[in-house]
Amino acid sequence: MKSEPELTPQEISMLQGSHGKGVQKAMEIVVGLARIYNAKRLIPVTSAQIAGVSYDNLGEAGLHFLSRLAADGAVSVIPATLNPAGMDLEDWQNLGIPEDFARKQKEVILAYQRLGISITCSCTPYLIGHTPLLGEHIAWSESSAVCYANSVLGARTNREGGPSALASAITGRTGEYGFHLDENRKPDLRVVIEASLPSGDLRTSYFGLLGKIIGEKIITRGVKALPWIEGIDNASLEELKSFSASIATYGGLALFHIAGITPEANAWDIPAKSISIRQNEIEQSLRELEKGIAGKFDFFSLGCPHLSLREIETIANLVKGKKIHKDFWLTTARQTKLISDQMGYTEIIEASGIKFAADTCCVVAPIKNRFNYMATDSAKACYYGRSKNNMEVSLLPIETILQIATSPQSH
Ligand code: F3S
């Protein structure tokens, strides 16, 4: 039986429209979800991250919803940032984005600006100063960022939809259910990695592959499980962002614990139920994601989730003095690109022929049917490259991708 959440006098007045129609609509969304999930009450949130920004995904209905909400006076009352848009907001022409799409995308961004949302347009807000702390209650909606925030930062968020994260930004509230509660953060499946991991600290493709294998194993068990993972001695920020994106994509997960690495792993007993990941499974999964399309690549993309400055620096070092003649996008937050500009990395990278695609990514940009064969270090980009953009894909390490793209045979 569904129970009614207990609301404070202020929440009731928001719901009754005393704070304006926009706030009322947002409160209806928050309370509606709290009812569905049997929340006893609403709790304050300190941060929101809002997906549903690309006009390619939103369409006219989404744009209308946002414009209406802004016209009704709704505005964010907490720090709130946006997910990637469908294009680089400054350099869209250079990336071949059609003019009519660009016009609509700008209308979406304008609506979000009016709603008081920072137009950062990044799926890695935690790299650009929007970084919640351990135990902080937040409302984020980008699945990779949700998984990273819950697992690596120890913040607390459900996997919100774009509208519900926006509603939380406007009301400063969410229902107290799901991952906001201690009991739902308890792991119930031990995952033992029995394979030996390669050395290095930008093993993003490898961690993406691990996330895919674990996510798929959990999905095929037919019941949702919260994994407690052991057998990973160390992992860099970049590897954890790749892992978070992948396990969220292939397993629908919003939280994992890694023994010795993530902050809540030690808070729980080791689960009794256990599965293993063996070397041969990793090799088989890698073969499936390579599919022998080397030599055919017509598109290369790095930056899913958005690149860190360290990844950009590595790329600059690897392509210095080399030339690339195929379409090659680096996707990152504009703020990260600005530092890259100041450090001189952008100049080196662009001299090679690689293009920056700030504010956007190879999944949310309107590139369907433009390219056929993509190489990427992101297991998540592989999934959506196939399912959304009809491409054949190959998962490869960053260094290998750059070697292939700069080799004379690829010209
Ligand atoms: Fe980010 Fe786009 Fe990948 S939003 S996680 S770069 S699909």
Which descriptors would you attach to this protein?
411 residues; binds FE3-S4 cluster; globular; four-stranded parallel β-sheet; alpha/beta; 12% strand; five-stranded parallel β-sheet
What's the short version?
This protein is an alpha/beta fold and 411 residues long. Helices cover 41% and strands 12% of the residues.
Structural class: alpha/beta
Order of helices and strands: HHEEHEHEHHEEHEHEEHEHEHHEEHEH
Estimate the helix proportion, in percent. 40-55%
Q: Which small molecules are bound?
A: FE3-S4 cluster
- Give the rounded overall mean pLDDT: 95
Structure description:
It contains 14 helices and 14 strands. The protein is globular and about 70 Å long. The mean pLDDT is 95. 41% of the residues lie in helices and 12% in strands. The strands form four sheets. The chain has a five-stranded parallel sheet with strand order 12-11-10-13-14, sandwiched between helices. The protein has a four-stranded parallel sheet with strand order 8-7-6-9. Strands 3-2-4 form a three-stranded parallel sheet. It has 411 residues and is of the alpha/beta class. Helix 2 packs across helix 3 and helix 2 crosses helix 6 (162-171). The longest helix has 17 residues, at 55-71. FE3-S4 cluster binds next to helix 13.
